[in-house]
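Hi F.,

I've been meaning to write this up properly since the lab meeting, where we talked about keeping a consistent format for the predictions we share between groups. The idea is simple: the sequence comes first, exactly as it goes in, then the structure tokens exactly as they come out, then a line or two of notes. No screenshots and no reformatting. I'm using this chain as the first example so we have something concrete to point to.
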Amino acid sequence: MKIIKAKAPGKLILSGEHAVVHGYPALAMAVNRYAKTIVSSQSRPSILFDLLNLKYKRAHTLETLKQLKERVHTAHQEFKAGERNIREVLRRPFELLQYTATNFLEKLNLSVTQGIKIHTRSDIPVGCGMGSSAATIVSTNHALSHYHEQNVTFQKYLELGIEAENMQHGRSSGIDLHLALHGGCFFLEDQTFYPRSVPPFNFHIIQTGKPESTTGECVKHVEKHFRYSSLGKEFEAVAYAMDTAWKNHDLEGFKEAIQENEHLLEIIGVVSEKVKMFIQKAKTVGAAIKVCGAGTVSGDSVGTLLIISENPLKSLLNEYGYKMESIECVSEGVHIV
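Output, unedited:
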């Protein structure tokens, strides 16, 4: 039996979430949480999806999957025309991986006459702003390319990844995919990724729970702020300030930039009242905290929070039912294991 295993890291956007979709700069890093994909042969001439985190296991013919891909693509075109909600593009979470695999096989003119099994699992929280979908897309495409012994370029991986991620988020900035592919830390400006050194500070994260609203819904909700106000320029200024503090190993400057970034996210309406209150209480003991993903436009949970604090915040974390854990940057992107 032929078996190929690949894994890709998740990510944190330290500054520039939402703004990066509209062309403003961002600072981000790949982190030590991974999506893993195993592609293996099977006797039946079909594609078996065994998606552990989604509790989905089912085989489909390539023709059936091509029909699904066309339906999803048409729905996305209707979303772009304002005729559908982004939630209506992918009807079930597992359809993202079905679209990803089918699109990859079609674009590279690959057959599945002997049949394959695609098994995925991940320790990246789903829907919490840590690049779960991008890492899974990248690890799946990488495993498929090696299984079929294809020499796929970085740019082609990125192109195929954006096509898939657009179905999930409506419009992909490509930053999550770049970090899953490349690893490391980058400052993104004018569609160019400038590498940065390993983070000079110790980071922690807090999971507040999966948001009720999707990334696509949040992106749609905040569009008006970037189209009709100067907030984009304010996000840009914060990204520059954070990058400067990063390069100068200026902890206080970095914490100030985190707090200002969080303030802007609250202005555009993607931070729940519960999390705002938690952040305000944490600030009184010297912690700097911000939302690290799309946030939410409904409910209490906003996904992942980035925190820098010398104080363990035990009583406050207990009060809110949150848990704080360390997080590290990783220099290696997607690779075969």
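Notes:
The mean pLDDT is 93.
The domain at 198-327 is CATH 3.30.70.890 (Alpha-Beta Plaits).

If this format works for you, I'll send the rest the same way.

G.
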